[in-house]
Write a structure and sequence with these properties.
mainly alpha; 15 helices; globular
């Protein structure tokens, strides 16, 4: 009895990308950055737990929906051919049930915050469900993914302040460009396969301008956040972190400029460090400010 149970668990963990945390970490860092800005420092353990767990659960639920929607395409793509829904190891009903349970648990966490956060969580779920299907009709589905991922910023401000101020939307816009950057790198890995099966991606749409566009997306992300957060007087720690993030963007350019699968995949997988660097600059600035006040 125990061996099949472990085998089933292994399949579920594979479905939610348990051993590939980069996908949920790129959602987490901008959400935490927004949480710190909205709270003017550490938001408290309750909200921190809600948003860390909620981010992980919703990204995992999104993987379930994505793999069901893409199951007929994934078998033709080298990187995704062995996914458990694609191979039939997990049924469509089973995957959707798991996704629904994860989403409900995440919604339960949001219920411990306030009405504004609860209200914003509804469109967040709807966009997350819509994303996998956008690849059939939209030439830049990565933008839809960005909208889905960016709801963490909106919900964070709503949970803390009961409203979504202008700075949240500027952070939302800036982060959209970061999502376009790293998910275009991801799409470059599968470009040859996607062209054969008719999937639409930003890597295909941008064509020979893909690398230049990614560099521009990184610059826009850091510039918009820099301007939006300037009134908060975060100080040299934040600007040093921004410089370090910019240096990582340059490194990514060296990885993707020859458009190899390996280089583009590495660039995508390490992107969460860029987001972590920016968050560290924000959190570190508040720590120093608190130390100075004491």
């Amino acid at each position: 009895m125990s061996a099949p149970s472990r085998s089933r668990l292994s399949l579920y963990l594979d479905l939610i990308r348990w051993n590939r945390p980069a996908g949920w970490l790129v959602c987490l860092w901008p959400t935490l950055s927004a949480l710190w800005i909205a709270s003017d420092g550490f938001p408290g353990w309750h909200l921190l737990a809600v948003f860390v767990l909620g981010t992980f659960l919703m990204r995992s639920a999104g993987c379930c929906v994505n793999d069901v929607a893409d199951r007929d395409f994934d078998r033709h793509v080298k990187r995704t051919a062995a996914r458990p829904v694609t191979t039939g190891a997990i049924s469509v009903k089973e995957a959707l049930t798991l996704g629904a349970v994860l989403a409900l648990v995440s919604f339960g966490l949001v219920l411990t915050t306030n009405a504004a956060a609860i209200a914003w969580s509804v469109p967040a779920v709807l966009v997350a469900i819509a994303y996998p299907f956008s690849k059939r009709v939209i030439s830049m589905p990565q933008a839809v993914l960005g909208i889905a991922f960016n709801f963490g910023i909106v919900i964070a401000f709503a949970a803390v302040q009961g409203q979504v101020p202008a700075v949240a939307w500027w952070m939302w816009l800036g982060n959209l460009f970061w999502v376009l950057a790293y998910d275009t790198e991801y799409a470059m890995v599968d470009r040859d396969d996607d062209l054969k099966i008719g999937i639409k991606t930003s890597a295909i749409t941008l064509g020979r301008f893909d690398v230049a566009a990614i560099v521009l997306f990184y610059l826009l992300f850091l510039a918009i956040w820099g301007v939006a957060l300037a009134p908060y007087g975060l100080g040299p720690v934040y600007w040093l972190a921004t410089a370090a993030a910019l240096a990582q963007g340059v490194w990514h350019w060296t990885l993707i400029r020859h458009r190899t699968r390996e280089g583009c995949f590495i660039a995508f997988r390490v992107n969460h460090w860029l987001g972590a660097t920016v968050f560290a600059g924000i959190a570190g600035s508040y720590v120093l400010r608190q130390m100075a006040a004491n």
